[in-house]
Design brief:
Blueprint lengths: L13 H17 L7 H16 L5 E6 L15 E2 L6 E10 L1 H6 L5 E8 L11 E7 L13 H12 L7 E5 L5 H9 L3 E5 L3 H9 L7 E7 H14 L2 E6 L4 H9 L10 H4 L5 E7 L10 E3 L2 E10 L4 E10 H7 L4
Parallel strand pairs: 1-3, 6-7, 6-8
Antiparallel strand pairs: 1-2, 3-4, 4-10, 5-8, 5-9, 10-12, 11-12, 12-13
Helix pairs in contact: 1-2, 6-7
């Protein structure tokens, strides 16, 4: 049987459905902001995402999730979601990028999701971390993750037509980055440290007009795929190399045939012509405002992107909980 044409292209309005997913996750997780329990934050977001994804007209498979099936309620790799047979899509989720931030009431947490046609999201699962380098479209083609920090900063500065001293690099504040931070400063550039949330950081670096010029450093491998989807939409570039955290993980990857020297391009992390990305702020940050609750409802701030058109939309929404509660199915 020949699949219908809808499998060849995702509907142009699909992005709004994804915003509903991230809004639901942000609204659910935001209720636990500042309560000190990051597992509660994550579970609330996952439950809300799963429920909303089950209503969307698609057949989605989670290829980037946070857990396996026996670790429910996490969205697990291989889980099928959706309410239709087509389009068949890959789903990459980070229900909350910044669970610790949310649990502590700190800024910068988002709920994020990316979708592309089936078989277009690929990354080895044997290695948890990846060394990443991300820039916006002005510096696309000017980066090389195998080059030195100083050389990359020099080339990025040249592409952006400004001195290295004005380049701002966003980096996760981790002991593993001590040398990286020293090298950035030695090259004359400035460093902006963040405690968590490297999806938002990568998008921040890749968004035109952002004060952040480049993301450098080691973060989660799954997060690289979600970030790559957003970067595909805005025309930036991300490069990544797998970074085994210890010899056991290194040997496991080698035994599985993974090439640890391979550089993953933006398109290799997330390919295809139809890529969608959506995110909603949970706690306020530079890119998105956080959830604001008021009597009987809440306000959310989201972003949705589409690669085919390069369209980026900012979505402000008011949610009336009284009306929403009436729409919930009766048990």
């Amino acid at each position: 049987m020949t699949p219908p044409a809808t499998n060849a292209r995702i509907d142009q309005h699909f992005g709004i459905d994804l915003v509903r997913v991230t809004e639901a996750a942000a609204l659910a997780a935001g209720r636990y902001m500042g309560m000190g329990d990051k597992n509660m934050v994550d579970q609330a977001a996952v439950d809300a995402m799963r429920s909303t994804l089950s209503t969307i007209q698609m057949e989605g498979i989670v290829v980037i999730g946070e857990g396996e099936k026996d670790e429910a309620p996490m969205l697990y790799i291989g889980e099928k979601l959706g309410a239709a047979e087509y389009p068949k899509v890959d789903i990459a989720v980070d229900p909350i990028d910044g669970t610790t931030l949310t649990s502590k009431g700190l800024p910068g947490a988002i709920a994020a999701i990316a979708v592309s046609l089936r078989g277009t999201m690929r990354v080895p699962r044997e290695v948890v971390y990846m060394d990443k380098l991300a820039v916006n479209k002005d510096a696309r083609g000017a980066i090389d993750i195998n080059a030195s920090v100083a050389e990359n900063l020099k080339n990025i500065a040249k592409a952006k037509k400004k001195p290295v001293q004005e380049i701002i690099v966003i980096v996760l504040d981790r002991p593993r980055h001590d040398k990286l931070i020293a090298d950035i400063r030695a090259a004359g550039a400035r460093v902006r440290l963040i405690s968590d949330g490297d999806i938002a950081a990568a998008i921040h670096a890749a968004t035109p007009g952002s004060p952040i010029d480049v993301l450098m450093g080691i973060g989660g491998t799954p997060e690289a795929v979600v970030a790559a989807a957003a970067i595909r939409c805005v025309g930036g570039e991300i490069q990544g190399k797998l970074w085994p955290k210890d010899d056991k993980e290194r040997q496991k990857a080698i035994a599985a045939g993974v090439d640890l020297s391979k550089v993953y391009s933006t398109e290799e992390l997330c390919g295809g012509d139809d890529v969608y990305f959506a995110a909603t702020g949970v706690t306020g940050g530079d890119m998105l405002k956080g959830v604001r609750y008021f009597t009987g409802g809440a306000e959310t701030h989201s972003i949705v992107m589409r690669s085919r058109t390069g369209t980026v939309r900012w979505v402000d929404a008011l949610h009336d909980f009284t009306r929403m509660d009436k729409m919930k199915p009766r048990k």
